[in-house]
Amino acid sequence: MADRSVRTESPEPRTQDIEGEVVLPSWSRRHVLDLDDFSRQEIEQVIETAAAMKEVLSREIRRVPTLRGTTVVTLFYEASTRTRSSFELAARSLGADVISIAASGSSTEKGESLVDTVRTLQAVGADMLVMRHRQSGAPYLVARHVNMSVVNAGDGWHAHPSQALLDAYTIYRHLGDLRGRKVVIVGDITHSRVARSNIWGLTTMGARVVLCGPPTLLPWGLRPDQQREEEWGLPSVEVEPSLDRAIEGADVVMCLRLQLERQQAGLLPSIREYARLYQVNEERLARARPEALVMHPGPINEGIEISPAVAHGAHSVIEEQVNNGVAVRMALLYLLARGKTNNREALA
Amino acid sequence: MSESLAIRGGRVLDPGQGLDLVGDVLIREGRIAAVGAGAASEAERVIDATGLIVCPGFVDLHCHLREPGFEHKETIASGTLAAARGGFTTVCCMPNTEPPVDSAAVVEFILRTARSQGQVRVLPIGCVSRGRAGKELADMGDLADAGAVAFSDDGSPVADAALFRRALEYATAFGLPLVEHCEEPSLSRDGVMHEGWVATRLGLRGIPAAAEDAAVARAIALAELTGARLHIAHVSTAGSVDLVRRAKERGAPVTAEVTPHHLALTHESVMAGAGESPGGLAYDTNAKVNPPLRTPTDAEACLRGLLDGAIDAIATDHAPHAIEDKLCEFDHAAFGISGLETALALCLTLVHEGRLDLPTLVHKLTAGPVRAFGLERVAPGLGSLAAGAGRPADLRPAPGDVVVFDPEAEWTVEPERFASKGKNTPLAGRRLRGRVVATVYEGRTVWQM
Asked: Does the annotation count B308 as an active-site position?
């Protein structure tokens, strides 16, 4: 039976009350675009701050005025329920003003370029931009052309840093130190920004990451038996195409959503066979460690990548991930605002 | 030009003729009159080339001048000025204009505009298929008679193998080469960069090397079937260099070109970009090009192919674009690099690194491309400094096309100062060594620093 005990103390909790005296190491980051350039210390700092935010969220009045006078714009070019509401709730809980823009279709379809759109938002007075975009790299383009802080809420297949941070936080709360922990990421790695950011975040925290999925859904360089050239700019992970073998002794099993159109694109023979080979079910989970966590970034295709019994079972922390998401995003917005103040003071 | 021009005291390099000496080049009436030590004792105009390299004007087998139809990206006037600045006195322009070059009228339009507004010789390439649609053959005879020097649907491959076979066969009637952009579309579909670790890291859809290799293998098989002359455009993979090399060993009628960027840059340029990038990832749309920049292994194989003769020519694939075509999401950006004004200096980086010798470089920019397309027929002596006196009576002396360059001069790439309307280069801000000092076209100085 899984150990559902949750660590309430953060590592060296230095944030007692974020309204009072705050003693935190300096934070110089202006944007959060991916975790590939985060240090272990920075990820720990987000985890610590998130723990403090969790405390704020447990109060009767779940709101602090830390970001009063700050305008946060959420600009979503792709539909999203949890990420968007999570960021907006996080910003409001910190007292920020929130402008929410849903840009349906691509910016080029609307006739206005992405750069023009974000420059307009900056001119309106936005301090921080939380953006989701269908195209990989779009937040990097934006960050080059604006002065406001840019938080990547998911870009194409590339990155989803706030998701990976909330995943790291969730694992930390249950298992403590991630070093040496075996984390298996199962499913469509190629098209997954969640997988990419988690690979960076988890390896930085010292976890042993094993990727598992059909080779047609593994990206170049992360396919089994692939010859690797000397040049290599990817983090070190293991690849195991058999889920039965991959899940052996796992501390964490992270399922990814399977987009049903992958079958239409010819990457899979059938959804039925995918479920037979790659579904995380109770029988397979029995091979993992007894206290193993089962995670999923959502939304879930129950009965495809995960069985309903596992999704709602004792090992599942899927709902908690959503809950932790608000605290982690509060932490990010808070740290970015703090960094801004620090920078301003440094300039003064 | 009845005037005479003397280029004095440079290192005269004409690898096509095995010429490498310190001396003068004399141009009279727009043609090479004499080459050698003290050959230009008297002339009306003089260029002092002491300490500089003097060689035949460069010949580019592959560029996009965008006119007619895309004059906001480039015009024949701006593109040929860029060519002159880059040391090119002859450019072959690709037919993916609007309308495309699939009728004699468009060939004539380009030739006429080049005569009145151009700075250098423009040789149009005609379409293989009508409207570049890949369905039926263009009127290749009309195009040849109007002055097309080759046929290509460049920008796209001729996807239908049977149509490509018929095009090869039909072209043999005119003795002109078919230039194929080798890409298997079902393998490259929606890809935006080389399929490798950088694409994995950036989350971008890849174009595998095999998409080119497979198409090159098919094109060579059809060239051997038909006996027609096939020229492989912008070779970018180790696999295609090897296929071309082996085809040549069998005596197949195949030639090939490589671009400066595929020789000197890799897919890491997409990630690194020019200058600082927030988050360290540039997603540099100026490094988005088709075929994509590949791995160091591929670039090395292209260089080896250049050195051992598998590759005949360096061609720029100059593909100018407007700012808005590149200032956007990587997936939405246009493919292409504005290359005419950086080609020489970028290739010279390989010379400075000791990986490429200067005579080979000059050869692949002069006699190499002329031979590949058979351009001697268009302009006798093209790509050489063959003087009137030394040549058989039935041959006219080479056109007075000469480039003078300083292989050591350092400069910073500033796209905003390009003559080309296309400022799209991944080399912005980069220090390069080697600069064109003067370009002479038919005895006329069309560019001088």
From this structure: no
